[in-house]
């Protein structure tokens, strides 16, 4: 497969997954702001920290409030990771490989493209309740994943796309869990309180994990939720399962069935093994933030190794 096609498939999927995750985060955060007691202030800064865009936000805005955060993360053309730019970049990558994808997939990406452009022109972030917009983004991205699975042959291109999707999903799951441990609680006195429970429930809902977690574990506990989102071997958004799927696709691309034959397979295998033999109690004792930060560093290193091995350096279509 041409490295240009592999690169575009990989990044098209990463951008769509990123857009869906941002829509999830904002939808849940908006709902959370409505559920909090009157004496508890809304907390929108953690949402920006979760996405890794806090430094850029500080350069552009002096204060943090609901309207500014929604604009910045959903519509701001100056934020390279906004939903608006993610959909534009996904469409550009799809356009560059138009003969390699299906008509149905191209039409759905175009639908999302015009939908976010319309949202920007209508200034959705100024509406009293923008949740309908975020819900449509989520549904649009989920429909796109269904179209990919139903219409794209399981060739190398499909596998590169799945790797991009899985690495992006693992990264965002680690970030949303990390921020809960450090920023969401306004004071240690709230630990174990109804506010704490509301926030843990919101975290699960932000990754569509609430129903599956309650079915498996029942009671909401920090250690149980962390274990479910990091180490569960069956939930599709757990970090471990995302990495297992990425490894399968890496090996399908290389044709390797035993061990590793390149740096990307080695790094993915080491990180997966680290998670497979991890114990959530040990992780909590040694430091949840440090553990998740280490995972994010290794995910970035793995992404760079994939780029170095498979993608040519002369392709540069809106990568972040």
Automatic annotation (TrEMBL):
Coiled coil: none
Lineage of producing organism: Bacteria, Pseudomonadati, Bacteroidota, Bacteroidia, Marinilabiliales
Species of origin: Mangrovibacterium diazotrophicum
Stored InterPro entries: ATP-dep_Glu-Cys_Ligase-2, DUF403
Record's protein name: Putative alpha-E superfamily protein
Pfam families tied to this protein: Alpha-E
Domain DUF403: 1-311
């Amino acid at each position: 497969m041409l490295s240009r096609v592999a690169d575009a498939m990989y990044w098209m999927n990463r951008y769509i997954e990123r857009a869906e995750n941002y829509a999830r985060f904002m939808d849940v955060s908006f709902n959370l702001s409505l559920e909090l007691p009157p004496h508890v202030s809304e907390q929108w800064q953690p949402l920006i920290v979760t996405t890794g865009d806090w430094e850029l936000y500080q350069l552009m805005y002096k204060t943090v409030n609901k309207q500014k955060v929604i604009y910045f993360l959903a519509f701001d053309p100056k934020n390279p990771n906004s939903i608006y730019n993610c959909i534009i970049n996904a469409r550009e990558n799809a356009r560059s490989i138009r003969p390699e994808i299906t008509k149905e997939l191209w039409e759905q990406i175009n639908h999302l493209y015009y939908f976010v452009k319309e949202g920007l022109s209508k200034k959705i972030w100024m509406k009293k309740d923008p949740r309908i917009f975020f819900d449509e983004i989520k549904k649009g991205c989920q429909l796109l994943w269904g179209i990919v699975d139903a219409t794209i042959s399981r060739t190398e291109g499909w596998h590169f796309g799945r790797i991009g999707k899985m690495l992006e999903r693992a990264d965002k799951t680690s970030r949303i869990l990390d921020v809960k441990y450090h920023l969401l609680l306004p004071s240690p006195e709230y630990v174990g309180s109804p506010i704490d429970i509301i926030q843990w429930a919101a975290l699960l809902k932000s990754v569509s994990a609430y129903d599956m977690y309650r079915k498996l574990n029942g009671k909401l506990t920090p250690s149980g939720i962390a274990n479910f989102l990091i180490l569960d071997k069956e939930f599709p958004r757990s970090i471990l399962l995302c990495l297992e799927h990425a490894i399968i696709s890496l090996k399908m691309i290389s044709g390797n069935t035993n061990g590793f034959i390149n740096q990307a397979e080695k790094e993915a295998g080491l990180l997966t093994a680290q998670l497979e033999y991890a114990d959530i109690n040990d992780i909590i004792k040694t430091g949840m933030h440090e553990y998740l930060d280490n995972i994010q560093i290794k995910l970035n290193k793995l992404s760079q190794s994939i780029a170095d091995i498979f993608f040519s350096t002369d392709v540069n279509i809106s990568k972040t």
